[in-house]
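Reviewer 2 asked us to include a model.

Predict the structure of this chain.
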Amino acid sequence: MTERSVSIVIPTYIGTAESRDLLDVQLDALTRQDYRGKFDVVIADNGSPIDVRTHIENHPARNRLKVEWIDASGASGAAFARNAGADRASGEILLFCDHDDRVYPNWVSRMVEFIDEGYDLTCSAVEGDSLNAENPRRVAAIPAPDKFQPPGVYASVIIGTSMACRAEVYRKLGGQDVSFAANEDLEFGWRAHREGYRLGYLPEALVAYRYRRGFRPGYRQGRSRGIGLARLNAEFPGNGLPEIHLPEVLLRMIRLPFTRGLAAEERGLMIGLAVGQFRGGLRHRTMHWI
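Predicted model (structure tokens):
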């Protein structure tokens, strides 16, 4: 395999000391990569109230990693931070992951090998077991790698949690759409496909995904996703994702508060998703009334 220069962009918002500790977990995982080529890490700080810059500049991982902090606070959201990080990055291949997850040791090497098979934009699977033993989901768990991609969709579903893109392609496409509160990664992938770029999905090169804790964080995430999905149905009609039907959404909104056995985060996520689909379906006129 030809060794490629790689930049890893991590959109970051650190609100608590605990969240800062999660960034340390991810940085430690990046020091353990088996990739033989060069790579650097760009921490794109999206306006954290905690001093992330000083934390990074004095971080012990800098003895093993080339890590740079940049100010990405011009607008809120992961899309803006990813774009700012991509602008600063020097690698010919851009990898993206999140600050509160943990990449597997072969993540960089497998993602680079896979994109070198002829793809322009790819993502890998994620797993929700290893970081969530004390906070499991019982209904909305992350699908197994072989079931991670929904069947019949317009093009591969790309996730920013574990994404690789040729730097020139990312920039030609103008980066991710910052007007999306969520699902900006999926929109970016489908826009790339529409422009003729080749998308791929890699079941391996896993990332351990960390669920949010508590009802309110889950609800906020689900609501943003629901609105984003409704907008995607407007911008990519017939995309293969489930359509939004008013009776079904209302039924979920009524039933979910009383459904037994759901973790708080999971309940919040599912209720938020239904509320977001309702609001987004009305806003973007993608609601089906029957």
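The radius of gyration is 19 Å. The chain has a mean pLDDT of 96. We have added this to the supplementary material.
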